[in-house]
């Protein structure tokens, strides 16, 4: 071909670009062929060359320039070091991942990954481009961001990794390192625990220093304390000083040995999550079990689905009142045989919950396990493989729509998060003093989050490019609502 002919072919291509329905895809195709050079942003990025593991199913031989880009929107959470950009070679395909926001509006940037705790509607990447998917990683407490618990908020995302089993890449057992962790023999024998009881230790331990939380746990514990002795060492409802040589590590992930042997002397541990949500279970549940103490648990309403067997924790919500719970604990405190039944799961054959066993066995990520990927890199690769699949399907469809149907759209829904409106830890909400800190904080936070989720949906549907317009949109929605009544 002469230069003129090549020029004409290109012109023809460019004209096609604006008329064919698969326009976006043609652009990507042309980039693949090197016809269309994307603007600069990438060229000033350094491509860190990493010796990455290429899975046996990955025969992706494309160069870095041809790979789809995944943009991590939360700069604080980029699971690579050093540098801002890397190539990842996943089980089936490869991608470029970056935290350089300059690529936000690029064609090649096919997915944006968000960290739930940092996700703010007024900082969202706008305008939202139709060819880009959004992926949400949110393993932390529901209290960190109620925007995601509202249907309009979560439906903005196409892929999720959350603690819910319904999520695309579930992190439900993220706080349980292994089966061996549960099987570890009790740190303190029952005989010894009983000796400590006779020496004046309470049957129940409470150790909490984060007091103003949506689950409102202190209100429940305060009531419980009227009916049974509870030793409380943390800042919340403190009634006992912690021995000087010990540090309050109740919120830390580390497991200081001296601290652990101190708390393991208690028969029962109050184990209450800071936020309530199905499948949200943390070390608060698993750590007492590791030590051989019986958790008195409130958090995930579906916790029973994950426990080693039907008798391994006391569930607060099984009792009509704190008083009834206290009676039950007292009975158990005086019945060694019955108490030990709660520790039977320390024998492997007594772990009968197949969902738990399968969950631990089938997860591809590890907890403190260097031989497995961590779940951040795992999710990143999950998104990479899904995006490459999707792009291939779109491409096939654009070439031959009769033969290849357009790929199904995919979006998250409330089953991926959907944590309920915070309610009082004890008693009806009407009886709570109007100046109560919890009352002033959490129900409001929840409903304001709904406004923000709806505001963001409005920004996106108006094709706004400035997320700071969020407040205006929320305001005008509120005006419309009150005007319409
Ligand atoms: C991703 O989610 C958005 C918002 O829900 C939706 O409009 C879009 O069609 C989805 N994209 C894909 C590829 O499923
Ligand atoms: C929510 O999403 C899940 C898949 O993630 C799907 O199985 C379920 O049907 C969806 N529910 C609704 C109400 O759309
Ligand atoms: C949406 O906004 C972008 C950037 O502001 C603009 O390029 C695009 O044409 C707009 N699309 C529509 C459908 O209004």
UniProtKB/TrEMBL annotation:
<keyword id="KW-0812">Transmembrane</keyword>
<dbReference type="GO" id="GO:0005789">
    <property type="term" value="C:endoplasmic reticulum membrane"/>
</dbReference>
<protein>
    <recommendedName>
        <fullName>GDP-fucose protein O-fucosyltransferase</fullName>
        <ecNumber>2.4.1.-</ecNumber>
    </recommendedName>
</protein>
<dbReference type="Pfam" id="PF00852">
    <property type="entry name" value="Glyco_transf_10"/>
</dbReference>
<keyword id="KW-0735">Signal-anchor</keyword>
<keyword id="KW-1015">Disulfide bond</keyword>
<dbReference type="GO" id="GO:0046922">
    <property type="term" value="F:peptide-O-fucosyltransferase activity"/>
</dbReference>
<keyword id="KW-0328">Glycosyltransferase</keyword>
<keyword id="KW-0732">Signal</keyword>
<keyword id="KW-0472">Membrane</keyword>
<comment type="function">
    <text>Protein O-fucosyltransferase that specifically catalyzes O-fucosylation of serine or threonine residues in EMI domains of target proteins. Attaches fucose through an O-glycosidic linkage. O-fucosylation of EMI domain-containing proteins may be required for facilitating protein folding and secretion.</text>
</comment>
<dbReference type="InterPro" id="IPR055270">
    <property type="entry name" value="Glyco_tran_10_C"/>
</dbReference>
<dbReference type="InterPro" id="IPR031481">
    <property type="entry name" value="Glyco_tran_10_N"/>
</dbReference>
<dbReference type="InterPro" id="IPR017176">
    <property type="entry name" value="Alpha-1_3-FUT_met"/>
</dbReference>
<dbReference type="GO" id="GO:0000139">
    <property type="term" value="C:Golgi membrane"/>
</dbReference>
<keyword id="KW-0256">Endoplasmic reticulum</keyword>
<dbReference type="Pfam" id="PF17039">
    <property type="entry name" value="Glyco_tran_10_N"/>
</dbReference>
<feature type="domain" description="Fucosyltransferase N-terminal">
    <location>
        <begin position="67"/>
        <end position="170"/>
    </location>
</feature>
<dbReference type="GO" id="GO:0046920">
    <property type="term" value="F:alpha-(1-&gt;3)-fucosyltransferase activity"/>
</dbReference>
<keyword id="KW-0325">Glycoprotein</keyword>
<comment type="similarity">
    <text>Belongs to the glycosyltransferase 10 family.</text>
</comment>
<keyword id="KW-1133">Transmembrane helix</keyword>
<feature type="domain" description="Fucosyltransferase C-terminal">
    <location>
        <begin position="204"/>
        <end position="353"/>
    </location>
</feature>
<keyword id="KW-0808">Transferase</keyword>
<comment type="pathway">
    <text>Protein modification; protein glycosylation.</text>
</comment>
<feature type="signal peptide">
    <location>
        <begin position="1"/>
        <end position="24"/>
    </location>
</feature>
<dbReference type="InterPro" id="IPR001503">
    <property type="entry name" value="Glyco_trans_10"/>
</dbReference>
<dbReference type="InterPro" id="IPR038577">
    <property type="entry name" value="GT10-like_C_sf"/>
</dbReference>
């Amino acid at each position: 071909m002469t230069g003129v002919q090549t020029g004409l072919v290109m012109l023809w291509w460019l004209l096609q670009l604006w008329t064919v329905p698969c326009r976006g895809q043609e652009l990507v195709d042309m980039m693949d062929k090197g016809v269309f050079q994307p603007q600069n942003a990438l060229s000033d990025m350094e491509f860190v060359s990493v010796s990455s593991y290429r899975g046996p199913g990955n025969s992706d031989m494309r160069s870095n320039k041809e790979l789809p880009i995944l943009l991590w929107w939360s700069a604080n959470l980029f699971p690579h070091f050093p540098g801002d950009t890397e190539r990842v070679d996943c089980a089936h395909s490869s991608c470029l991942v970056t935290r350089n926001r300059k690529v936000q509006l690029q064609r090649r940037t096919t997915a944006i990954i968000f960290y739930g705790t940092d996700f703010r509607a007024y900082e969202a990447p706008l305008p939202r481009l139709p060819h880009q998917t959004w992926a949400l990683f949110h393993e932390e407490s529901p209290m960190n961001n109620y925007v995601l618990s509202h249907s309009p908020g979560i439906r903005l995302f196409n892929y999720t990794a959350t603690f819910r089993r319904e999520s695309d890449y579930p992190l439900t057992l993220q706080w349980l390192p292994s089966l061996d962790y549960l099987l570890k023999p009790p740190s303190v024998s029952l005989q010894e625990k009983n000796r400590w009881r006779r020496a004046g230790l309470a049957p129940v331990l409470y150790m909490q220093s984060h007091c103003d939380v949506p689950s409102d746990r202190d209100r429940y514990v305060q009531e419980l304390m009227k009916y049974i002795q509870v030793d409380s060492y943390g800042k919340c409802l403190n009634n006992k000083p912690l021995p000087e040589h010990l540090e309050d590590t109740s919120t830390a992930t580390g497991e200081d040995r001296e601290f652990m042997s101190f708390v393991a002397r208690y028969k029962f541990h109050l184990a209450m999550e800071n936020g309530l949500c199905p499948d949200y279970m943390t070390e608060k549940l698993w750590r007492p079990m590791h030590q051989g103490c019986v958790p008195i648990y409130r958090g995930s309403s579906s916790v029973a689905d994950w426990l080693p067997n039907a008798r391994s924790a006391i569930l607060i919500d099984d009792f009509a009142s704190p008083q009834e719970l206290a009676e039950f604990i007292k009975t158990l405190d005086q019945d060694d045989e019955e108490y030990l039944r709660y520790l039977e799961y320390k024998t492997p054959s007594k772990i009968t919950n197949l969902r738990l066993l399968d969950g631990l066995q089938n997860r591809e990520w590890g907890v403190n396990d260097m031989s497995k990927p961590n779940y951040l890199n795992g999710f990143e690769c999950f998104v990479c493989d899904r995006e490459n699949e999707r792009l291939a399907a779109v491409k096939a469809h654009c070439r031959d729509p009769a033969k290849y149907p357009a790929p199904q759209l995919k979006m998250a829904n409330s089953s991926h998060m959907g944590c309920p409106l915070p309610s009082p830890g004890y008693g009806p909400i009407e009886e709570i003093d109007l100046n109560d800190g919890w009352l002033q904080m959490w129900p409001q936070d929840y409903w304001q989050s709904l406004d923000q989720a709806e505001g963001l949906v409005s920004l996106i549907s108006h094709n706004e490019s400035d997320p700071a317009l969020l407040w205006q949109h929320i305001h005008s929605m509120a005006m419309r609502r009150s005007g319409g009544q």
